[in-house]
Amino acid sequence: GFAKVDNHRDLRNGFPEVIYCAGKTASEVEAIMTEMLKQDNNILATRASKELYQQVKKIAPTAVYYERARLIMIEKEVIAKTKSKLLVVSGGTSDLAVAEEAALTASALGIKVERLYDVGVAGIHRLLGNLDYLNEANVIITVAGMEGALASVVAGLVDKPVIAVPTSVGYGSNFGGLAALLTMLNSCASGIGVVNIDNGFGAAYLASTIILQLEKARKEG
Amino acid sequence: GFAKVDNHRDLRNGFPEVIYCAGKTASEVEAIMTEMLKQDNNILATRASKELYQQVKKIAPTAVYYERARLIMIEKEVIAKTKSKLLVVSGGTSDLAVAEEAALTASALGIKVERLYDVGVAGIHRLLGNLDYLNEANVIITVAGMEGALASVVAGLVDKPVIAVPTSVGYGSNFGGLAALLTMLNSCASGIGVVNIDNGFGAAYLASTIILQLEKARKEG
Amino acid sequence: GFAKVDNHRDLRNGFPEVIYCAGKTASEVEAIMTEMLKQDNNILATRASKELYQQVKKIAPTAVYYERARLIMIEKEVIAKTKSKLLVVSGGTSDLAVAEEAALTASALGIKVERLYDVGVAGIHRLLGNLDYLNEANVIITVAGMEGALASVVAGLVDKPVIAVPTSVGYGSNFGGLAALLTMLNSCASGIGVVNIDNGFGAAYLASTIILQLEKARKEG
Amino acid sequence: GFAKVDNHRDLRNGFPEVIYCAGKTASEVEAIMTEMLKQDNNILATRASKELYQQVKKIAPTAVYYERARLIMIEKEVIAKTKSKLLVVSGGTSDLAVAEEAALTASALGIKVERLYDVGVAGIHRLLGNLDYLNEANVIITVAGMEGALASVVAGLVDKPVIAVPTSVGYGSNFGGLAALLTMLNSCASGIGVVNIDNGFGAAYLASTIILQLEKARKEG
Amino acid sequence: GFAKVDNHRDLRNGFPEVIYCAGKTASEVEAIMTEMLKQDNNILATRASKELYQQVKKIAPTAVYYERARLIMIEKEVIAKTKSKLLVVSGGTSDLAVAEEAALTASALGIKVERLYDVGVAGIHRLLGNLDYLNEANVIITVAGMEGALASVVAGLVDKPVIAVPTSVGYGSNFGGLAALLTMLNSCASGIGVVNIDNGFGAAYLASTIILQLEKARKEG
Amino acid sequence: GFAKVDNHRDLRNGFPEVIYCAGKTASEVEAIMTEMLKQDNNILATRASKELYQQVKKIAPTAVYYERARLIMIEKEVIAKTKSKLLVVSGGTSDLAVAEEAALTASALGIKVERLYDVGVAGIHRLLGNLDYLNEANVIITVAGMEGALASVVAGLVDKPVIAVPTSVGYGSNFGGLAALLTMLNSCASGIGVVNIDNGFGAAYLASTIILQLEKARKEG
Amino acid sequence: GFAKVDNHRDLRNGFPEVIYCAGKTASEVEAIMTEMLKQDNNILATRASKELYQQVKKIAPTAVYYERARLIMIEKEVIAKTKSKLLVVSGGTSDLAVAEEAALTASALGIKVERLYDVGVAGIHRLLGNLDYLNEANVIITVAGMEGALASVVAGLVDKPVIAVPTSVGYGSNFGGLAALLTMLNSCASGIGVVNIDNGFGAAYLASTIILQLEKARKEG
Amino acid sequence: GFAKVDNHRDLRNGFPEVIYCAGKTASEVEAIMTEMLKQDNNILATRASKELYQQVKKIAPTAVYYERARLIMIEKEVIAKTKSKLLVVSGGTSDLAVAEEAALTASALGIKVERLYDVGVAGIHRLLGNLDYLNEANVIITVAGMEGALASVVAGLVDKPVIAVPTSVGYGSNFGGLAALLTMLNSCASGIGVVNIDNGFGAAYLASTIILQLEKARKEG
Ligand SMILES: Nc1ncnc2c1ncn2[C@@H]1O[C@H](COP(=O)(O)O)[C@@H](O)[C@H]1O
Ligand SMILES: Nc1ncnc2c1ncn2[C@@H]1O[C@H](COP(=O)(O)O)[C@@H](O)[C@H]1O
Ligand SMILES: Nc1ncnc2c1ncn2[C@@H]1O[C@H](COP(=O)(O)O)[C@@H](O)[C@H]1O
Ligand SMILES: Nc1ncnc2c1ncn2[C@@H]1O[C@H](COP(=O)(O)O)[C@@H](O)[C@H]1O
Ligand SMILES: [Mg+2]
Ligand SMILES: [Mg+2]
Ligand SMILES: [Mg+2]
Ligand SMILES: [Mg+2]
Ligand SMILES: [Mg+2]
Ligand SMILES: [Mg+2]
Ligand SMILES: [Mg+2]
Ligand SMILES: [Mg+2]
């Protein structure tokens, strides 16, 4: 076939196979999934439209669709959640799609996830009134559009890995998320690792590699 | 001569004539200044090098030079300070040149100026511990480089005009101040008017137009 | 819920709550508004489509829709207009949506607003023949697309705060409003504070912070 | 040799050969000039440093150097000036280098040239008080840096070909002349032909092609 | 009303009023046109959709629509064509919309127009085999997309004013016409005046200002 | 007619005429094709929609449509395949449209083509396990979106001409293929010639000019 | 004083105070350092020139200078190294300055650091022959200029957090590191957190936040 | 040591080792060269300053320096020139540095090289009068700055692989070679492979991979 399914991921138990649906025809996605369904792994499809989901359901009746996050999930095996905690912080309601892509992906990867939403810096008391969330997390994902200053403020408050996801929320000189991206890359607060604009998936994946190390460290001592 | 000195500014009493020195030869600046010195106005020269100052001193012995801010000032007439207050807030020591250009220009324009420096968001307690400064000002200028998030946080805390000056402090994807500029233009906190990168002068000038209105309003009631 | 309604604004009496509708689903807007309607504040929703308005009307029958400006307004309390005057100047008919977003938002914020439209520099006599408007205002918003030179010309004629809104009107090397934005940031006329491309709302909000100070100054003397 | 001297220009009598000196070593310029000096044409060298001029003088003792415009001229034959008039208008003193490159090049091409300098839009009365200059010209070159709004205002006042030269004068979001370039390309006033940033030479050359046509038209009727 | 019809153009006899339709609602265009129809000038509407034309026809039954060029023309008075000739040269069939906008606008402005289409540099023999066209013109407009090299080649062959119109034809790193725009601005061949991407109208307008001068010169001698 | 069909290509036997359909109306394509069909050459139409194909079929019943690659082919004469081999390597399934445009165009140009798809660097074992493909090819086209690192890795493994096609697959800071384009231009591995984003056609054409030389060299010795 | 030394970092034992020297005058750095030296913390100064070091030595005689990395270090207290390991991987010798800034900073933060240098993808066997390094690390920093493909290849080989630092090594369309930055943000391999161009310090700081969590997890179990 | 000398290139007999000197200290270059000198390969160092050469000469007395091209060459073994011919075409004298980097590198790689310089499109007769050069080459490298149209014209005249090198020659909206780069990527003439701005080395290397294939094809038949 035209696609080579990547097997190097099953080193990690229960780690799902992932399909990026954008730019693929529905029948291409179907063909790839058919191949994957022969294995026992969970499957995650990102950037999936509702139409695609309807079609996927025919070959995978247990598939679940998360509309806001545009994710399809097929869980063959329930994964126990990690002891380490991931916190997903977001600026505004308009960032919800990306924040949920991150939170749900992380959950699918077996991570314990908390959410702290709508705490953008336009009203900083909303963040300062919730410092407990920050203190209890091991890793933090900040999701913010417009100017993306939330990442700087969060990283300035903690000494933990902060993964920053700029979103394309905004208009004009926002240039499709460029403004928030540059903010996060140039933050005067250190300790921020940035992923692509709107890449909630990638942020969750990076968080999972950190938490995988944490869980190993717990065992090893 | 090659230059037409602009007289429309003397409508406002004591308002200084301003020369932008970048891209002018020393003898051109001298010629313009000679022309201006025939009037009774104060004179302000921005982006002036130390060498230029040495030469200016010969024709204007009372000229004062502010090295960090690259300003030359010739005060013919002492201007009484306004009742309304301007606060200049800056992110870090590296932004000092621009912050001082703003503060000194405003002072030269007759405005009462306060400074709150080195309160960038990397350690937000430094700003939150100084809210009194914000509360007592009528107009606030925020000067910040790198990602420029300071403007958003300040504007989120007050309901006053905030003038934001991005600086070129930073490197890499900062792109000479573009990162901070876009941050300030796309702020999720409303009430911010942005000026050009490193334009401390322009910020002070805009502040002065607001405070001119305020002083008039005080008189008119 | 997913949204934290921001209460720090009711410091200022009658100041409306604001919802930015772009990137929110209709049901999310509805949920936020339902929360807000429990309070006595006026409500303003920007970037609202006609479809959204139809739905909002069901829960807020007194809501008014301004189609050109894409604004929904719910006035619970009539606000007395300020003594200070705001003038909204625009370049061409194509800039009307943004100019009206600014004028109507300012009005909703309780500001006395005048309009001077279609006075772009292609025929500068239209502006020069209306200097009275400029002279009588306390604050001026200039709205212009294409090359946005209007802001420079206006700021060159007055000694008042000029808030410049670049619009995305134009094509080709206009790059979605970038041309007008850069014009306004680099103006050879001082005294201009720039907001984001098409951000009529933000310009009005900044104007309101200035006028709020003016009204206080009138009282304080 | 490494360079092929271009002869197709002598169709036009007395039209000078032109060397663009940037990026050429002094000995390369010398070699090209030696070749050209065998012909009877006038010679113009643009972007020439003072050091280069010193060296050129050795092989061409009549060479004249215009420092501000960075031009070397070698006139073998005096060209009669045209009846048609070119006006060079500039915004500020900092634009002088480019304005003079244009004016002196045009002169070298045999064109009658007038200058109207330092009439930028920050004080528009300086331009409006000199409309006679605009009315008497056949072609106008506008030279302006910063936001370059001068071109729009001039083109809005006349029905003549306006050649616009953006300059790199400015800083920050000026991006080396990009701001003025975009302004001129997006002008709401029609009738503007734009050349490259700082390209005074090119503007004069384009003006000369127009005036060449005008002189022919005068003869043909 | 919201629009101020610009009368300064009737200095030139028969010169049409021009409406830029993009970003205006149909009823706004209608209102402006109704105002214009009270005068005796011809009317030209650019960037007009077919739907808009249907509506315009109701108030101006003699209006003609040029679909490829998206122009509506209302000729009240037939204008005699000029003696001077304009040549419109284009690179490929995909540039036809812009080339026709230029050619038809120039025609509406009373100019004698020739066309030489589909002579892009990919097959340079097509241009070299048609040098007569170039030789007989007084002014040349070159319309080209993709890399826009046509303008350089044409300007290298003639000593006439060349107006270059980059088009947005192309894809990828063409960036909506930016590639062709930069080509034209940086041409190694001198004598090119550049207008905005896809601005066939502006090119024709600039050509008309040159030809207006030519016609005057013919009369004056 | 408006289009000048380019005949200089029939120097090479059986080489197809090529039409770029984007930006042409269906009737324009039809007119050009009608002209071409009078000759004996094969015809290739790129960027063709299914609708266009339906219409083309009416005048050229033997036309074949490749939907994924958006190509129409009319083969009048079967061309023997070359001895030299072209390998088309692609990163992911989302790049299929561009990879197939390249592979099918090359085939239509008479070249022997192999495909190695879905071997992106996210799982580099997929490429390393297929080195035979690389070793047996004379020329390699690499097609990759997102960050386009595949081109560097391939060029680092072979000493053959590598033609790199960035695709617009991706989102956010991918900026429509810019990320992959810059990667390919700045590759630390030498021996890469880059074509425009998504330009599978151009890559195949360049490959064909190389292979044409190879076939000649085989004959000449 | 003008600077507010930030104390919130001493939560973490032995964690050094950090000064960013770019854009500060030597006497400003000295003043800040004098303040810091009153505490018991280690001190790290980044982007420090040799001249600055000479001056610092006078007030801090134990200061050590790392020329290639432009770092000054003042160790008051020796910090025990962590059990968790950081690997710094770099593409070429030209990236050494940034790689060493990362490695030395991490060391100063108490982290056990390994180096794997000069393994860029132009000769991928150099990386593939050293997989042990990758397997034994807990966190990996990849430093690469030009096209920066190294980050993708590394992240494709491991399931660990990869921190990617683009460098400004390169020229032309590299645009000062933009090419490598975009590569890293758009990587088809997941699990990459990106920091600013040339920001070796920031990468090390982020790594330290991860390893701080790891060390805690080892203790907690 | 810090550098891993890459041996995979000696597959090709006599092929030189290459060092990119930019961003390396002199002692780093020396260390790498010392390592290389232990082998029998020829050595090529690009982007080398004269100062570096002086130092290299001490350890490699036979090293030759080409100043214009900034190349150091150490030939241990004379390589026979290929039968296939490479033509290097350049636009103007200012492009000489890059053209010579290409020509000399190709020569060092054992390729027979011809030069056709100073034939830019501003005077296209210079190119058209030298078609023999184009006809006799197997591969063509075109080197051009400013707008870079030369590549399109050459590729439109031949059916051979054309490698295009944009140079940074120019100013203003040339943006350091971006204008020529985009021109070459968007050429309406097919068959062009583009390398990085000023990358004469890379163009020669790519040409050598093609000619290596040609020489093999001659032998294989
Ligand atoms: N059109 C607009 N452009 C920019 N900011 C806006 C706009 N409308 C509302 N806002 C701001 O966005 C905030 C609300 O954002 P949200 O909580 O996402 O609805 C308001 O408090 C305003 O400050
Ligand atoms: N300052 C300038 N800017 C743009 N083009 C120029 C300039 N000076 C000369 N030229 C053009 O460059 C050509 C000479 O280029 P060259 O053969 O490289 O010396 C002349 O024929 C002019 O058309
Ligand atoms: N296609 C066009 N591109 C650029 N400018 C145009 C175009 N069509 C008309 N204009 C200019 O826009 C002006 C009308 O603008 P408006 O008043 O907004 O309709 C006219 O006077 C023309 O100078
Ligand atoms: N997809 C494509 N991308 C770039 N160039 C193309 C493409 N398809 C065809 N061309 C070129 O465009 C020329 C035809 O252009 P046109 O005459 O406008 O149809 C052909 O000769 C090809 O060289
Ligand atoms: Mg932190
Ligand atoms: Mg506020
Ligand atoms: Mg003013
Ligand atoms: Mg005009
Ligand atoms: Mg010419
Ligand atoms: Mg290779
Ligand atoms: Mg990985
Ligand atoms: Mg060709």
Task: Note the topology.
8 copies of one chain form a homooctamer.
Chain A: E1 17-20, H1 26-37, E2 43-46, H2 50-59, E3 64-66, E4 71-74, E5 85-90, H3 96-108, E6 112-116, H4 125-128, H5 131-136, E7 139-144, H6 150-157, E8 162-166, H7 178-185, E9 192-194, H8 200-220
Parallel strand pairs in A: 1-2, 5-6, 5-7, 7-8, 8-9
Antiparallel strand pairs in A: 2-4, 3-4
Bound molecules: adenosine monophosphate (AMP) (4 copies) and magnesium ion (8 copies).
The site of one magnesium ion (MG) has 6 residues of chain G, from α6.
Keywords:
homooctamer; alpha/beta; five-stranded parallel β-sheet; globular; binds adenosine monophosphate; binds magnesium ion
What does this entry look like structurally?
Eight copies of one chain form a homooctamer. With 221 residues, chain A is α/β, with parallel strands linked by helices. Chain A is built from eight helices and nine strands. In chain A, the strands form two sheets. The first copy, chain A, has a five-stranded parallel sheet with strand order 6-5-7-8-9, sandwiched between helices. Chain A has a four-stranded mixed sheet with strand order 1-2-4-3, sandwiched between helices. In chain A, strand 7, helix 6 and strand 8 (162-166) form a beta-alpha-beta unit. In chain A, helix 1 (26-37) packs parallel to helix 2 and helix 3 (96-108) runs parallel beside helix 8 (200-220). The termini of chain A are far apart. In chain A, 66% of the residues are buried. Mean pLDDT of chain A is 93; it is low at 7-11. At the A-G interface, strand 9 and helix 8 of A face strand 9 and helix 8 of G.
